[in-house]
Amino acid sequence: MKKYVVGVDVGGTNIKLGIVHPRGKVIARTCFATSPFASSKIRLINALAGAVLDIIVQAGLTKKDIAGIGVGLPGPIDHAAGVVRFLPNIPGWRNVRLRAILGQKTGLPVVVDNDVKLITLAEWKFGAGRGAANMMCITLGTGVGAGLILNNALYRGEGNAAGELGHVPLNEFGPDCNCGGWGCFETYVGNRCLTARANRIMNARGMTLERMYASAKTGNRKALRFWHETAGHLGNGLTGAVNLLNPRLIVIGGGVSNNHQFLFPTIKAVIRKRAMATQAAMVNITRAQLGDDAGIIGAQVLVLANHGHT
Amino acid sequence: MKKYVVGVDVGGTNIKLGIVHPRGKVIARTCFATSPFASSKIRLINALAGAVLDIIVQAGLTKKDIAGIGVGLPGPIDHAAGVVRFLPNIPGWRNVRLRAILGQKTGLPVVVDNDVKLITLAEWKFGAGRGAANMMCITLGTGVGAGLILNNALYRGEGNAAGELGHVPLNEFGPDCNCGGWGCFETYVGNRCLTARANRIMNARGMTLERMYASAKTGNRKALRFWHETAGHLGNGLTGAVNLLNPRLIVIGGGVSNNHQFLFPTIKAVIRKRAMATQAAMVNITRAQLGDDAGIIGAQVLVLANHGHT
Q1: Residue A306 pLDDT > 80, yes or no?
Q2: Strands A284-287 and B4-10, how do they pair?
Q3: pLDDT, mean of residues B46-61
Q4: What is the value of pTM for the model shown?
Q5: Do A159 and B282 touch (CB under 8 A)?
Q6: Residue contact A239–B151, C-beta within 8 A
Q7: 3 state SS of A149
């Protein structure tokens, strides 16, 4: 019986692969650097196909055990057509028919989707969002994205582009954003902006968010203020989504969310103060649970959903 | 065959009733002022029950022709339980079991919901939003609300409180709002704020939005600037919803939307400039079509949906 899924999580830095058990457990993993293959999309697709076939063998399985391959990629994806529109951080990818090409190279059914949508599906089915009918799952990183589970289903919007929380304006006037807009949430809480602000506040160069976290743990007042201000921006940005969507749950993942002890109390306080009473009382804010495996596990959810197994 | 619906649209100023044909046409209408009944909720409910029974007779129908009564009210409603949580503009209404009470008094099935949700259902089924799977319907007035059609269904959120676009922050810091928050969209584009700004700009007292519209039509530069600035705020506020929800359509209704000639071009230009390319290219902005009848027609959509007729 075909019940395992090969999950592929394509990132700008690394590509992770895993074999996922029907209950969401990752039973085999592999990982390779993106950069050696970033120069040519066909080299990258060949590497993906090879790694998929390898990991199946390494796990002691055959293609007959595999329901399909799910691939998450960091950019806008035409999920229905199986086409990668483009990848901001991997050059040369524009309107690539990845589902068809990878399917042909592996002989297995393929589904492709945006990586944040896969992470959202994973947290919803197997992580922090189990049982939530209405939730938002946020990833904090260089980019800030969100996936929406609404009425017990992944909400894609008209063109699979819903969830761009990072590009919801936080202010009418604000810093220019590389999306072409300005004042976007990401220009306040994306890693690049946070790192620049950390260097300014600490009057230093080469300051990292990890060091700001370590400093905050030692009680450094500037570092504590830095995280407090960051949490304030996060709370302000989430208030709009809370009032508009009345979710039961907001799951926060991505690197910065490791600093939850310096972020979550302020985020919650801002939402309690600023959002409407009904919505504020109903929403819970929690950390993502699946960490680096989320993308791979989400690929499993998507593949099995597409095959009518869930 | 029970196929007609009695739609009731409870407002702070007037209460409108109508008999709605299965195809969405209003075949009989009546209207009475709210204020004589606003002092006591049971007097208001009695007036509603009497008006419902009267209009059925006046239309030459009997209760046997009526599938049910749909009531829209301006405030948070527990639709599932049939309970009015409270009405900001009609005192004394707090946790009123309107579905049960009105059902008993009329002998007809009753559904109750928030008025903006009913307007949204009406525009979606019979108005500007026909055929849209993902749309937002906005009402501009003293309050600014929105209804969301997502994945071909009304999206209610966890507690039927979704759609509070008027209380999505437009800026991190901004005017206090009567919701308890600050910087809310409504504090920039709600009628009260707009009227105050009009008086300031025209250096006058007693300036109305109707007069600002008339002045703009004569080419008055201050009035034109006023509407241009208003449209700028509207465009900025909608950009967030466009990026987050990737809707196909935004339908704009309510009094201020009559000034569409001075609003829509700027709103569209702001969204084109500020929203992400994919989302901006997909969204259409259009006027509501059903005007004052929308609430009554939406009641029909809700009643027939609850009876499984649609």
Answers
A1: no
A2: unpaired
A3: 97
A4: 0.95
A5: yes
A6: no
A7: strand
Q: Which of residues 214-253 of A touch B (CB under 8 A)?
A: 232-233, 236, 239-241, 243-248
**Residues β-bridged to residue A47:** none
Which of B157, B245, B275 faces A246 most closely, judged by CB atoms?
A: B157
Q: Please check the confidence at residue A172 and state whether its pLDDT lies above 90.
A: yes
- Looking at residues B73-81, what average pLDDT do you find? 94
DSSP-derived 3-state class of residue B138? strand
pLDDT in tens, A180-193: 999 999 999 999 99
How many angstroms separate the CA atoms of B21 and B61, rounded?
A: 12
Which stretch of DSSP H or E encloses residue A193?
helix A191-202
Q: Which of B85, B171, B245 sits opposite A172 (nearest CB)?
A: B171
Question: Cα angle vertex B77, ends A120, B247, to 5°?
Answer: 40
Distance from CA of B204 to the nearest CA of A (A): 28
**ipTM entry:** 0.95
Single-letter amino acid code for the residue at A268? K
Q: How confident is the model at residue B1 (pLDDT cuts 50, 70, 90)?
A: low
Contact B164 A276 (CB under 8 A): yes
How confident is the model over A193-216, as a mean pLDDT? 94
Confidence grade of residue B310 (pLDDT, cut at 50, 70, 90): very low
Report the number of secondary-structure helices (H) and strands (E) in chain A: 10, 13
B180 vs A277: CB contact, 8 Å cut-off? yes
Question: What distance in Å separates the CA atoms of residue B301 and residue B310, rounded to the nearest whole number?
Answer: 8
Q: Are B173 and A175 in contact (CB under 8 A)?
A: no
Q: Measured between CA atoms, how close is A85 to chain B, in angstroms?
A: 10
Residues 163-202 of A with CB under 8 A from B: 163-165, 167-172, 179-182
- Let me know: does B135 contact B250? Beta carbons within 8 Å: yes
- Spell out the SS3 assignment of chain A: CCCEEEEEEECCCEEEEEEECCCCCEEEEEEEECHHHCCCHHHHHHHHHHHHHHHHHHCCCCHHHEEEEEEEECCCEECCCCEEEECCCCCCCEEECHHHHHHHHHCCCEEEEEHHHHHHHHHHHHCCCCCCCCEEEEEECCCEEEEEEECCEEECCCCCCCCCHHHCECCCCCCECCCCCECECHHHHCHHHHHHHHHHHHCCCCCCHHHHHHHHHCCCHHHHHHHHHHHHHHHHHHHHHHHHHCCCEEEEECHHHHHHHHHHHHHHHHHHHHCCHHHHHHCEEEECCCHHHHHHHHHHHHHHHHCCCC
Domains and CATH numbers, chain B: 4-116+292-306 (3.30.420.40), 128-288 (3.30.420.40)
Two tokens, residue A74: 């960091």
B260-270 mean pLDDT: 96
